[in-house]
């Protein structure tokens, strides 16, 4: 039942989050995002019925509905009454069928898979939240458990934006940007409301970042605890930089680079408030692959990999602080 509409945020449901204070909602949302990312639900395909998803994932149908609304607000799926949910944007190919995608585009999943096929897995990452990386790391952890790959050592260094940094996104859209007239005498109150909402959006981003950093760290360290990988080293540092791009490096071998595109989208908050915001969607970033050519140190791929490795090391050593 609709209960209210606010200037910056609108209440879409009066039912409060249940099932572990929202943990089940986040689990389902992250599982569906991972399936979109690894191609289980390809572009143009239909997701299973809500009841089937609820039974498969062991949650209520309401939790599945909330997760689907979040995916729709992020632009990945389109839901229609009586027609179910259909994938309308691919995290890898951004709306184009796979066979039409330019060769310069790359997929994070295959990059991570190549890394984990090596005896020594070395990854350097600069990203906003590590949400995409977390899903793929967990997939590789399962491959190790199933004996598909057997690395002897895993080394991961990850740079995340400092929590003290005031990021330009996500930010609530100001009514003036929508052509709405400002009520006389309301500017101070509106400004205070906007600041409060922006604070909530930033807190939500930090919570997502913490959750995924903890998740991937645990996924990798569990491999050592279980005796599957003899040596695991995971280090996360915070850097006072706003990510305008995401960077994945296999030092000396290859790099994936993808700019964050700023978009307007609706963000579903934990309390079911829906906020019109300016944000970036890391899951949909277009990634380009650059390969080090050992036979030609002056090739564009070699120069790019070398320069990005030097940039990462400089930030890691001179700007970053332990998380």
Automatic annotation (TrEMBL):
Sequence segments annotated as region (Disordered): 169-189
Pfam families hit by this protein: GntR (PF00392)
Family matches, as PROSITE patterns: HTH_GNTR
GO molecular function: DNA binding; DNA-binding transcription factor activity
InterPro entries: Tscrpt_reg_HTH_GntR, WH-like_DNA-bd_sf, WH_DNA-bd_sf
Keyword Ribonucleoprotein included in the entry's annotation: no
Keyword tags: DNA-binding, Transcription, Transcription regulation
Domain HTH gntR-type: 22-90
Keyword DNA-binding among UniProt keywords: yes
Protein name: GntR family transcriptional regulator
